[in-house]
Amino acid sequence: MSTRRLRGAAAASPDPGPKEPIVEFAEVTPYEQYVGVRQLQALVRTVTDHPAEPSFLVVTQVMELWFTLLRREWELAQRRLRADDLDGAVAAIQRSVHHLRSLNASWGSLLWLTPAEFNGFRDELGEASGFQSYEYRHVEFLLGLKAESVVRPHRALPAVHADLERALADPSLEDDVLAFLARRGLPVPTEVLDRDRTVPHEADPVVTGLWAEVYRDPRPANDLFVLGEALTDVAEEFTTWRQRHVTAVRRAMGAKPGTGGSAGLAWLERSAARVVFPDLWEARTVL
Ligand code: HEM
């Protein structure tokens, strides 16, 4: 954060003591210019006066920002992998694990939400549902959880829709890892490297075997083992997000249908069961 300092009385005194923060600014504070607190506050537009609604809205908005940060880290990891900079990729993936843990901690702010309180503003949400979160879809697509059907709701926002369509067809982080392993000389099957990227990658016995080999040497000096563990942390933390969401839903609305039109709990449980980085999990069975 850059600051242009206006000298105050404290700074001019002969014995200023411990330096005090700057309190004089010719314009809006540099903090405000950088963070945009007024813009953030303007976005907390509740649709009811129910006291439970601000937490629901703010937690949702905060989670959207975490999704954006995750997306940035994983897109950076992809660029580093494509440049054969494994250290740079692992650094971004490991950072993302910390972000995921913070994202997951946000569920704590909704644990108190009872069905009676949720009912107090739920009807006013209309058909709005997290199912329509396009940033969450980017997160899923980067993790290899591809599905054409979840792109469709965003047709009315052409730039968002085009971006998601591109992400659907582009390599996921998992695809970039597999391509990197192949460039490192591991015999990743061609049909895995050239597969249809618009659908999820199923565990492949050859790739599973390759990871099992990597995991036979579980030392920090084995850089592929470190990569595998960073990706496993991502898969575990992301799964935790989905499981905590399911629990939050069960707690706040039981098995009622969702505002987005799904069966609710049963539908979410099925969606949350999809496996992230299946080869890395299968490798544990092989070992
Ligand atoms: C206790 C509060 C919450 C309840 C009761 C709830 C309920 C639901 C339900 C029933 C669905 C299924 C789709 C539907 O028919 O609407 C859903 C999907 C979803 N919700 Fe929530 N939700 C809550 C909080 C959140 C928060 C804070 C977020 C953060 C962005 C979120 C993000 C999502 C996402 C991304 C999906 C799609 C999941 C998938 O496709 O597997 N939800 N939610």
Tell me the β content.
Answer: under 5%
Q: Helix proportion of residues, in percent?
A: 55-70%
**What small molecules does this complex bind?**
protoporphyrin IX containing FE
> Unreliable runs, pLDDT <50, ≥5 residues?
3-9
Helix count equals: 14
Which structural class fits the helix and strand makeup?
A: mainly alpha
Shape: globular
Please tell me the overall pLDDT.
Answer: 95
Query: What is the rounded Rg?
Result: 23 Å
Biggest sheet character: none
Secondary-structure element series: HHHHHHHHHHHHHH
Total beta-strand segments: 0
**N- to C-terminal separation?**
49 Å
Entry keywords:
mainly alpha, disordered N terminus
If you had to describe this structure to a student in words, what would you say it looks like?
The protein is an all-alpha fold. It contains 14 helices and no strands. It has helices spanning 9-12, 30-35, 37-42, 53-82, 86-105, 115-122, 134-142, 158-169, 173-183, 190-193, 205-215, 223-253, 265-272, 278-286. Helix 7 runs parallel beside helix 8. The longest helix has 31 residues, at 223-253. The radius of gyration is 23 Å and the shape is globular. Bound molecules: protoporphyrin IX containing FE. Protoporphyrin IX containing FE (HEM) binds next to helix 4, helix 12 and helix 13.
Offer a concise description of the structure.
The protein is mostly helical. Helices cover 59% and strands 0% of the residues.
Present the secondary structure layout.
Blueprint: H1 9-12, H2 30-35, H3 37-42, H4 53-82, H5 86-105, H6 115-122, H7 134-142, H8 158-169, H9 173-183, H10 190-193, H11 205-215, H12 223-253, H13 265-272, H14 278-286
Helix pairs in contact: 4-5, 4-7, 4-9, 5-12, 7-8, 11-14, 12-13
Protoporphyrin IX containing FE (HEM) binds next to helix 4, helix 12 and helix 13.
